[in-house]
Amino acid sequence: MKAYILRRLLLTIPLLLGISFVSFVIIQLSPSDPAEVAVRVNEIVPTDEVLALTREQLGLNKPFLTRYADWMCAVAHGDLGRRYVDNKPVAQELARALPPTLWLAQTATLFMAVCSVGMAFACAMYEGRTVDYLLRGFIFLGTATPGFWAGLLLMWLFSVKLNWLPTSGMQGASSVILPAVTLSLSYISTYARLLRNSMVQNKQKNSVLYARARGLTRGMIWRHIFRNSLQSTLTGLGMSLPKLMAGTFVVETIFAWPGLGWLCVTAIFNRDFPVIQAYVLLMAVMFVGCNLLVDILCAVIDPRLRARGQA
């Protein structure tokens, strides 16, 4: 297991370097001049002298590879640059916006796990019956419903009509319910369907027939089926957890949630390139980190993956 983890960690190093290079190149390909953007957002007349001084201050007059190396050295020391709008450190702004997004994503993950596992169990246990058809219809509806529209409907019902929950902002524990439910709806449908199909396939295997012949209880058999059905779900979950973080900008914009998504949308409107670049890098690192953790967890569950990874 240690050799498998070490091998996976070593493979992430070139991947992270490639991600950092791509995120740096994407910002450099923008048609807007970063120096002019930095000058205009501070309401300064962009004369040639001012632009030349700004390019020198931002290091834009250096060769491309030199700028990338300087940026990587700064990132390694925790310096993600400064915002064009107010000259505040980008790392400080990300640290301020990260806790609300983590809270929202964790709550949405909890809703997703509880609802998808419960629905998958019910569908698999009552396969081909009315409960299975009704829940699968709900799953299809959740997959087809756009997140922004579901958020507006939930806000209209529970905030405007019933006045049970706040409409926007981070005003307390109840404020996270509507954004988290909106964020988790499509993922609940996806993983309930994925887990249900895997459990239906696994309960027809000979190992389950053998377990019944041994006289194991119904609960023990279903725990065995559930554990053997987790691998494909966990692999997909490794992509969905960072997608929950990266995809919060729509929900955060609808519910005025002060997280990373709201910060990124504001930076896009202001053309605040250092914030956008840092956001892209952070989300990419989270994707790699979550996939690494899920691969390790899958290897713990299935020893065959460890043997395959060491081959």
Features:
15 helices; mainly alpha; 0% strand; flat
What would you say this structure looks like, in words?
- With 311 residues, the chain is mainly α.
- Helix content is 77%, strand content 0%.
- It contains 15 helices and no strands.
- The protein has helices at residues 2-28, 34-40, 48-58, 64-76, 90-125, 130-144, 147-161, 177-202, 206-213, 218-228, 230-246, 248-254, 260-270, 273-301, 303-310.
- The chain is flat and about 85 Å long.
What integer value in Å does the Rg equal? Answer: 24 Å
The class by helix and strand makeup works out as mainly alpha
Distance between the termini: 13 Å
Number of helices, counting only DSSP H or I runs of 4 residues or more? 15
Residue share in β-strands: under 5%
**Biggest β-sheet: count, sense, barrel?**
none
Helix content: over 70%
Order of helices and strands: HHHHHHHHHHHHHHH
Give a nutshell description of this structure.
This protein is an all-alpha fold. Helix 8 (177-202) runs antiparallel to helix 11, helix 12 (248-254) packs across helix 13 and helix 13 (260-270) runs antiparallel to helix 14 (273-301). The protein contains 15 helices and no strands.
